Amino acid sequence: MADRPKLLLFSHLCGPDVVTGAEKLLLLFAKELNRHFHCVMVVPKEGALAVQARQNGMETVLLDLPLGLAIYLGSPNVQEELHALSQQPTWEPLVFLLLRERPAYVYVNTSVHPMPAMAASALGIPVIWSLMETLRESPYRALAADAVNVYSTRIVGISETVLGALPPELRAAKGSVLRPYLHAADYMPHRWPEARASLRKSLGWGDHHLVAGYIAATIYPNKGLREFIQAMLPIAVQNPRARLLIVGMPVDEEYVQQCRELLRAAGLADRAAWLGFEERIDAVYPAMDVLAVPSLVAEGFGMTALEGMAFGKPVVSFASGGLQEILEMTGNEAYLVTPGNVSGLTFRISTLLDNEQLRAAVGRRNAEEAQRLFGIEAFRASLDGLLRSLPPPGSFSPAPPAPSGAALPAAGLVRGSGPTVYWLKGGRRRPFPSARALLRNGFRFADVREVSDLALEDVPLGKPMPERPIRGRKSAGRRRRGVGRRRRGRAGRQVRTILSYRRRRSRRRLAPRRKLKIRVRRR
Fold first, then answer.
1. Quick one: which of 9, 104, 480, 482 has the most CB atoms within 10 Å?
2. CATH code, 398-478
3. Does the pLDDT at position 399 exceed 50?
4. pTM of this structure
């Protein structure tokens, strides 16, 4: 491990049992990054992602950090939210973690996890910020893109669609497309016929049944389960062999119950099978004849669609963000439907279910194109390009004294072009309210370094330094009056000499002209 630079990867989620799409993609990337780096996965709590990371030879660290939605949503209060995050109690443990681990690079996953990017940037650590989702369109999306720019060295998008949310000049300067990959051999294709027969038998279905599949790690309205069921109702009514296979963990129980009620009301509840979250996708995809991906939001990529293609299945999808990009790249434009168009979904699914030769031809083409465009070789070529664009790795250490206008050191006295001096430590800048406060805290103006205003503004503002000396630091000013000094006599005894005549006089009512006597207290 010593010959590989250290990379800290920050995940915003770590579910106890379910691995979400974002977690799956992070782990997928981390497996390949681990070939080039000593990878450490930082997770908010113990869970499935942490277990799988360790199984793949990575260390794990637990640090629960608050998330922020302003960048993803394109909210007008982006800067206010980022400032609030820098004031959270977990900010200093995050900074201390970075100082302790001394990574060459930090890898931040998703736009809702800005804190690691902010802290690493404040310490001068290069940041790879991976965007797994498309930033929402809004009048303030430029503010969100600017925040990503400020706290990143490179910006990774999992599709052209994701990077399309950034201004062209930012995309050209920092952007890299790193699409997910699949290695079909990992899913043991020789077992697919057996898996197909086994699952269908357990559900009471035969090989003659026509199964349309829907799969999601977590089921909620934006994943389009209702639209899938509505599209399948007329197909199931007309064709008694039609079946629905629904796989995923419900996170909105009321919504899922409404979807179930649609089937019950149509008298088709017995035509559908409901399975929970399934980690082994090779156990469910083979049982499907057609896969539907009716996402209603602009997906960053659409891993489910790619997985279905890799298993040789025809895929019908709403043209939502990265899903449209995948289907167009693989020659499946004919199976794209305008988001929310249920009748269009019905037509394309029924066309495939009714034509076995068409299903087989489309499935074979999908498997070939998925391997050619999204195989491990294509991913490694893109990853090599990203790695070449990074600054050279080196051990993280506090910067030496910086000349005027230079980057920030890790700690010390600094100021920008203005008169205010800051004490930089622990990832925060604490202003001195006055020159007197700086001197009384034991500092010297000769040690102040001038840095660039832009770099200084990136560091979160801390509490002002106190006017009184901070604990553990001697004052640079004069000693307070009345403090005794210790001397040693010839016999080695410690004596305390009282020097203030006025204080003696106030404590003892001595005559004004009485000669001062020195009292020696033996100990």
1. 9
2. 3.30.2390
3. no
4. 0.70
